[in-house]
Design brief:
The complex is a heterodimer. Chain A has one domain: TIM Barrel (Alpha-Beta Barrel), CATH 3.20.20. Helix content of chain A is about 50%, strand content about 10%. Chain A has helices spanning about 25-30, 70-85, 95-100, 120-130, 145-160, 175-180, 190-205, 220-225, 230-250, 255, 270-290, 295-300, 320-335, 355-370, 385-405, 410-415, 420-435, 465-480, 480-495, 505-510, 515-525; strands at about 10-15, 20, 60, 65, 90, 140, 170, 210, 215, 260-265, 305-310, 340. In chain A, the strands form three sheets. Chain A has a five-stranded parallel sheet with strand order 3-12-11-10-9. A five-stranded parallel sheet of chain A has the order 4-5-6-7-8. In chain A, strands 1-2 form a two-stranded antiparallel sheet. In chain A, α13 crosses α14 (about 355-370) and α19 runs parallel beside α21. Chain A is globular. In chain B, about 40% of the residues lie in helices and about 20% in strands. Chain B is built from five helices and five strands. A five-stranded parallel sheet of chain B has the order 2-1-3-4-5, sandwiched between helices. In chain B, α3 (about 75-90) links the parallel β3 and β4 (about 95-100). In chain B, α2 (about 50-60) crosses α3. The longest helix of chain B has 14 residues, at about 75-90. Chain B is globular. Chain B starts with 13 loop residues before the first strand and ends with a helix. Classes of the chains: A alpha/beta, B alpha/beta. Chains A and B meet through α3 and α17 of A and α1 of B.
Chain lengths: ~525, ~140
């Protein structure tokens, strides 16, 4: 590559719209706001990290997304990952489960067990987690539309196994607002959907106070086309909507905020990502303290999973995704995440094989064991560049949040499809830039291999396994007490109609082996179904 | 919902762009919809979770030239097998059927056999999709 003449050196602007200088000094830090928001790790405003000792005390949790086929198969993959050193589980559900359909629903045909594990009743959860110590391994459920039902099922399963639910840790994604923006596993209209999130937070605050009922996701908003500053700002707006819903019911912020968590995406410019997370930590702490009056430090913590995103990976030259994954993991560690996950190198094609999932896990383990990343908290802190960028990213996020508020708030913008249209317009521009080469991507618009052959092993889909799952659902239905099930389902409907918290009724129904589809039908009967606003 | 289009000379190409099955990944579909609109096509985007019956019915009612599917979650073959006879029953054999998304190479021939002349796996260029449609609409 030939050297550029001074006249050819172009201005650089990062994805969030911030101009990047060739070098930074103390004067830039000062001009961007100084070090007022820096503080110490473990102290307000937590820009440097939510704990004083961070990874010295405990390295990040490694939690690869996994699940496919029926509960037996998923249980085996879970055990494989744990045997290889994974310290948490992140459960992938199939699409019928995610949108509240039973495996024998006609709409589920061809989709049972395809992109995740199929779950119909409590029996399936008993099988999926058989032999896994739920105290040692914390479980994250990637479930949204049907989250209230699956949380009820998880708590019931743990209780049945003899765990004290009051001590039980774990997470549910349960972020429905982002499903309306991207990912698309909504079921009910916006208003009752938010109410259900409120029900889970309220219920867990009382009955499972160590369980994290919501993980607010910037991740998928980013995948849908948002830039890094928007990713975080929109996630904060969504979290505020849930917090407002719960506070409206009379809960104090310190009774629930400590169990809110976040899920963010990593791809793109390393420094922009690190600054994004540092800025976000300070901003969230400030919001919780100043706007919500939180007093407990835990209520101000931005607890997060920062995951190497699928959007950064390429279909072309897939082995390069291993390298990208390693850089994403490095960014995640430099950003002070609590939990880490990586999309595997074959994930642009298929469900990861055992081999590719293990490569992802080993990538994170190398960082812990070999690279010195667990020794010192916030190792990039104090860099003129990183501190300046952190201040600028924080200001950018505050600006985006103020804009959302000025336009009527996140719930309104999502209900009307306005956020969806905005991020999708950006995704289109991004794709055009990718195709024109303006946005460089190795293997895609640079250093291509002509006539590339893709040697990726595809995860097989088994229709026989889907039939087995349906047979197992039939067997559960034949064994349970129909009168008890009917009574429990009636209570779900009554409580939903009376605007009571539906969680106690769902827990009772789950314990009677009511199915995901049956419970969802009761709720749809009261709430109706979401109708997607199509807006370009 | 009819999304309109930029002006262009000649009759506009009308496209039904559908999200088949339960897959919620609509970023790609929306990007392709915008590219088609920029090219002057009229795009009717269905939104998520369309059944084969819905797709066939809308294709008929909207009197489209092109039936386009975007599938990312792997259920393209079972879906297209159900859709094909429904489209045929509506007499829509002469329309252009195309599909894009996460479509493994090993499935491309099967999709073509099912009547999908245009198969656009991940990595396909927007201009290639638009160009193919322009060339093949009768």
């Amino acid at each position: 590559m030939s050297e550029r003449k001074p006249s050819e050196i172009r201005p650089v602007v990062n994805e969030s719209g911030i101009a990047i200088k060739p070098h930074y000094t103390a004067a830039d830090v000062e001009a961007s706001g100084g070090l007022a928001m820096l503080g110490k790790p473990g102290e307000f405003p937590f820009t440097r990290g939510i704990h004083a000792l961070m990874y010295r005390k405990q390295p990040w949790t490694m939690r690869q997304y996994a699940g496919f086929g029926n509960p037996q198969e998923t249980n085996q993959r879970f055990k494989y990952l744990i045997a290889n050193g994974q310290t948490g589980l992140n459960v992938a559900f199939d699409l019928p489960t995610q949108i509240g359909l039973d495996s024998d629903d006609p709409l589920a045909e061809g989709e049972v067990g395809r992109v995740g594990m199929s779950i119909d009743t409590l029996r399936d959860f008993e099988i999926a987690f058989e032999g896994i110590d739920l105290k040692e391994i914390t479980v994250s459920l990637t479930i949204n539309g049907a989250a209230a039902i699956l949380i009820a099922m998880y708590l019931a399963m743990a209780e049945k196994r003899g765990y004290d639910v009051k001590q039980l840790r774990g997470t549910a994604q349960n972020d429905i607002l982002k499903e309306f923006i991207g990912r698309g596993t909504w079921i009910f209209p916006v208003e009752p959907s938010i109410r259900l999130v409120g029900d889970t937070i309220e219920y867990c605050a009382e009955h499972a106070p160590k369980y994290s009922p919501v993980s607010v996701c910037g991740y998928h908003i980013r995948e849908s086309g948002a830039n890094p500053a928007q990713e975080m700002a929109y996630a904060f707006c969504i979290a505020k909507a849930y917090a407002d819903e719960v506070i409206k019911r009379g809960l104090a912020v310190d009774e629930f905020a400590g169990r809110l968590s976040y899920n963010f995406n990593i791809f793109g410019n390393l420094f922009e990502q690190v600054a994004k997370f540092r800025a976000g930590r300070g901003l969230w702490a400030k919001i919780m303290k100043e706007q919500y009056g939180a007093e407990k430090p835990g209520s101000m913590w931005l607890r997060m999973i920062a995951a190497g995103g699928g959007g950064g990976l390429t279909f072309e030259q897939p082995e390069l995704n291993i390298v990208r994954g390693a850089y994403y993991a490095l960014i995640s560690a430099l950003s002070g995440t609590q939990t880490m996950a990586l999309c595997s190198y074959d994930e642009a094609y298929t469900i990861p094989t055992e081999y590719s999932a293990r490569v992802s896990l080993r990538t994170m383990q190398i960082l812990i064991e070999e690279m010195g990343l667990t020794e010192t908290v916030d190792p990039l802190g104090g860099s003129y560049y990183v501190e300046t960028l952190t201040n600028q990213m924080r200001a950018e996020m505050e600006g985006i949040m103020a804009e959302v508020d000025a336009l009527g708030g996140m719930v309104k913008l999502v209900s009307e499809g306005i956020v969806q249209a905005k991020v999708s317009a950006q995704a289109y521009q991004m794709q055009r830039d990718l195709e024109s080469g303006k946005f460089p991507k190795v293997g895609v618009n640079k250093y291509r291999i002509p006539e590339e052959e893709h040697k990726v092993e595809f995860h097989p889909y088994s229709e026989a396994d889907a039939q087995k799952q349906i047979a197992s659902l039939d067997a559960v239905r034949a064994q349970r007490d129909p009168a008890q099930v009917a009574q429990c389902l009636a209570r779900v409907r009554e409580d939903a109609a009376a605007r009571r918290n539906v969680m106690p009724a769902l827990v009772a129904a789950v314990k009677a082996y009511a199915s995901v589809g049956e419970m969802t039908r009761e709720l749809v009967g009261v709430f109706g179904r979401y109708r997607e606003p199509i807006r370009f | 919902m009819n999304l309109g289009a930029q002006t262009n000379s000649g009759p506009r190409i009308r496209v039904l762009l559908a999200k088949p099955g339960l897959d919620g990944h609509d970023q790609g579909a929306k990007v392709v919809a915008r590219a088609m609109m920029d090219a002057g096509f009229e795009v009717i985007y269905t939104g998520l979770r369309q059944t084969p019956e819905n797709v066939a019915r809308m294709a008929m009612e909207e009197d489209v030239d092109v039936i386009a599917l975007s599938s990312l979650a792997g259920s393209h073959l079972p879906f297209c097998r159900k859709l094909k006879p429904l489209l045929e029953a509506q007499g829509l054999n002469d329309k252009l059927w195309v599909i894009g998304g996460n479509l493994p190479a090993q499935d491309h021939e099967a999709l073509r056999q099912l009547g999908f002349q245009g198969v656009f796996p991940t990595g396909s260029k927007l201009d290639a999709i638009v160009g193919f449609i322009r060339e093949h609409v009768k």
